[in-house]
Amino acid sequence: MSVNLEDMDFSRGSYVKGIAVNEHQFLATAQFQQLRGVTRDPALLQPNTKQRASDPDLSELGELHDLVQRALQGNKKTNAKKYRRYIESVVSGGVGVLPPIHLWIPQPLDVATIGARTYAIVPTGEWLLSIDGETQLTAHFSIDTDPVTTPEMKKAHRELTLGVIIHHGVSAKVARQYFHDLNVLAVRPNTSLGLSMNTSDPLMQVVDDVQTLDVLRNRVEQSARQLGKKSNRLVTLQNLRQLVVNVAKGISGIQYGSRPVPVEDVDLEVLSEVSSNLVARYFDRYLSDIADREQSLAGTGPVLAAIGAMGNKVLQAPADERDAELERLFQTLKSVDWRKGPQWVGIAGNYTAGGVFSAKGTKEVAYAVHTALSDPSSATYRKIRQENAVGRLFNN
Fold first, then answer.
1. Among 70, 87, 346, 366, which is most buried by a count of CB atoms within 10 Å?
2. In this structure, are residues 109 and 38 in contact, taking their beta carbons and an 8 Å threshold?
């Protein structure tokens, strides 16, 4: 409908500015201070909460919520805390983007055009429920209601403009289908592509330095998780990042995977120098082995992760001793037999029923590979080195 400015009746409800896409969908922008007036804190709507049990209106809304949302528990609950920190960073001026929140109300909303602007009117006493973006909405309410939030953060956050898509005049059955489509049909980018786009990760800045080395120029796979048989690339971005992570953190860096790594205790300039020297020397010395993915393990994820972890000792050494420490590292690798074979069974992989050696994933075997490469007291250290080749010949 179209109304004059003087005819706006704010007692009817909240006027949310935006664009009507069709009779059931409205694209809106709203500051959080307005959004909190037309939505409820998802934490209050969860099953078995005291607030929901004691408030009939909240209980009724909670039952409707349960039709279109999953409970706030497990990973979802954990992610809400991480999302809060991300939002606070955005509010404080950090680089970031918040996706639009999809909200739903079963009854149709009046849409009013006032001059050049269009508004959806959410009636007083009615509430919009999230069908996608509830984790984000939970994080917003957490910032707003937590007593430890500073007044300055609370004010800036309430003035934060958010994108909202309001679905109205559709049944719970349709809203449930929207939930399915938005959450199940979406195709997430693979880890390597996601990492390559993360410009805020300090370690990715180090990885960027490393991949400009001559030996790696145009030979780092930026998007695929694995190198194809005919690929002329030497390493995936994901494996190169794990190598750098392990230079910074040692073999325990495996635990982080693609997640952010705390680097407050790391001198990134030194990390970049050590990682670059380690990678340049390793890829130059073992280039043919790394490139021969069919026959050699030298370029696999677990081996690169282990090499990175060995580089942590170089990183920890005094500046004037790093070159000597790096030389000692490569002395220990001189006699390693990189060929896929029985010497690596139970360390980097196993033979299949068809007699083909199959390497395992980084998280599965990186620790074992690291021990075999770096610990002279280990039996596996001797097992994978060429001086034991004769013994293997007679024992297999």
1. 366
2. no
What CA–CA distance (Å, rounded) separates 101 from 137? Answer: 8
* Residue (of 256, 246, 247, 278) closest to 191 by Cα position: 256
Is this structure's pTM higher than 0.90?
no
Classified as helix, coil or strand, 379 is: helix
What tokens were used for 203? 């370690």
**Distance in angstroms (rounded) separating the CA atoms of residues 34 and 191:** 36
Q: What is the pLDDT of residues 57-113, one digit of tens each?
A: 899 998 999 988 888 888 888 899 999 999 999 999 988 899 999 999 999 999 988
One DSSP character per residue, 37-73 reads: TTB--GGGGSTT-HHHHH-HHHHHHHHHHHHH---S-
Q: What angle do CA 233, 239, 241 make, to 5 degrees?
A: 115
Sheet-wide strand order for 129-132: 110-114, 117-123, 13-22, 25-31, 161-168, 101-105, 129-132
DSSP output for 212-230: TSGGGTT-EESS-SS--TT
CA 126 to chain centre: 36
Distance CA 240, CA 362 (A): 12
